[in-house]
From TrEMBL:
Organism for this UniProt entry: Chelatococcus asaccharovorans
Superkingdom to which the source organism belongs: Bacteria
SMART domains, per the entry: AAA (SM00382)
InterPro entries hit by this protein: AAA+_ATPase, ABC_transporter-like_ATP-bd, ABC_transporter-like_CS, BCAA_Transport_ATP-bd_LivF, P-loop_NTPase
SUPFAM superfamilies referenced in this protein's UniProt entry, alphabetically: P-loop containing nucleoside triphosphate hydrolases
Family: Belongs to the ABC transporter superfamily.
Keywords: Amino-acid transport, ATP-binding, Nucleotide-binding, Transport
Name of the protein this chain belongs to: Amino acid/amide ABC transporter ATP-binding protein 2 (HAAT family)
A GO biological process held by the record: L-amino acid transport
GO molecular function, one term: ATP hydrolysis activity
């Protein structure tokens, strides 16, 4: 089985700044994997390596078995990866419906359509003609999730999805992650909210100083144990 995302000894840079130091991990189809750790340890650089924003100096990053060589920002989407970035990046001049339709640009067919997305997020259906930026922070996160799913990805990457959200909305994100996984989509969760990690992931990797320093299964692991893992 070909991994949706695979990193083998990846060293990544911003200019001359060496951020990732030999990162290796894989996400198989249908898996839910979380990368956890403090701010500044390189978690978002993993995402940016897929987008070509961070330069891979050595090692290999693969999407669906294809090695990324000088990837463009759209390469990941073409290969079946959808990314919900930090800050959500809702297009301000588009309605909610238009923002969602924008997510279908890769042209991949599958379960997720405008109809199934609006059924998953009733608030988006109610306000489909409103500007996307007129939504609350939590509703914008729902819109960003829906837009990503419109591309029918094989793997959904969530970069700090709980940032700035009320706990009740974080619970909603965890429920949505479970529904997405039930449709066969793998999930890579970049997150510091350990309550969300425990609910939304099957496996975890702990990052520190640009490396994955610990990995394990979420089965039977409690919040205290996760905190111990990231106190590195």
């Amino acid at each position: 089985m070909t991994a949706c995302i695979r990193f083998d000894d990846v060293h990544a840079y911003y200019g001359g700044a060496h951020i990732l130091h030999g990162v290796s991990f894989a996400i198989e189809p249908g898996e839910r994997v979380a990368l956890i750790g403090r701010n500044g340890v390189g978690k978002t650089t993993v995402v940016n390596s897929l987008l070509g924003i961070a330069r891979i100096g050595s090692g290999v990053a693969r999407i669906a078995g294809r090695a990324l060589k000088n990837p463009r920002t759209f390469t990941a989407a073409q290969l079946g990866i959808a990314i919900v970035p930090q800050g959500r990046m809702i297009v301000p001049n588009l309605t909610i419906e238009e923002n969602l339709i924008l997510g279908a640009a890769p042209g991949r067919k599958g379960y997720w359509t405008l109809e199934t997305i609006l059924a998953l997020f009733p608030i988006l259906k109610e306000r489909a003609r409103s500007p996307g930026t007129a939504l609350s922070g939590g509703q914008q996160q729902m819109l960003a999730l829906g837009r990503a799913l419109m591309g029918n990805p094989t793997c959904l990457v969530l970069d700090e999805p709980s940032e700035g959200l009320a706990p009740v909305i974080v619970d909603d994100v965890a429920d949505i992650a479970a529904k997405v996984a039930a449709q066969g989509t793998a999930i890579l969760l970049i997150e510091q909210n350990l309550s969300l990690v425990r609910r939304a992931a099957d496996r975890f990797g702990v990052m520190a100083k640009g490396r994955i320093v610990s990995e394990g299964s979420m089965a039977g692991l409690d919040i205290a144990a996760l905190h111990a893992h990231i106190a590195i």
